Amino acid sequence: DPRALDEIAHMPVIMTVIEVLPKERRQKEEKTNILGQCTVDLLPLVKGETSYKHTLVVNPVPGSPLEGIPPENARPEMDVTLAVNEPLLDDSQLKEGNLM
Question: Rounded to two decimals, what is the model's pTM?
Fold first, then answer.
């Protein structure tokens, strides 16, 4: 579907990193903290790759404990591997397409 491929090519996936803290005695549920977010570009999959790995910087969200990290320190990173069973487009479709 051309529209679906267009959306994959132009809309990154936003990943949210969440810390789950252990439940205390009187709590009914675990406490969670949203630490940060990062974006994954899916364009390589549209361009014919079937697997690739990215190291992404986790950007802190407002109120996150990661906000207190001084700028001179390294930012938290996350390794992400994306894979599909077969290319999203065949060679003829890639040649006919207009991807940059």
Answer: 0.73
> What DSSP string runs through the chain?
-HHHHHHHHH-PEEEEEEEEEPPPTT-SS-EEEEEEEEEE--HHHHTT-SEEEEEEE-EEPTT-GGGGS-TTSPPPEEEEEEE-SS-SS-HHHHHHS---
pLDDT tens-digit readout, 53-65: 999 999 999 989 8
Structure tokens at 57: 């910087």
Alpha-carbon distances, residue 17 vs 52, 54, 76, 89 (angstroms): 20, 16, 11, 31
CB within 8 Å of 78: residues ≥ 6 apart? 15, 17, 38, 55, 56, 58
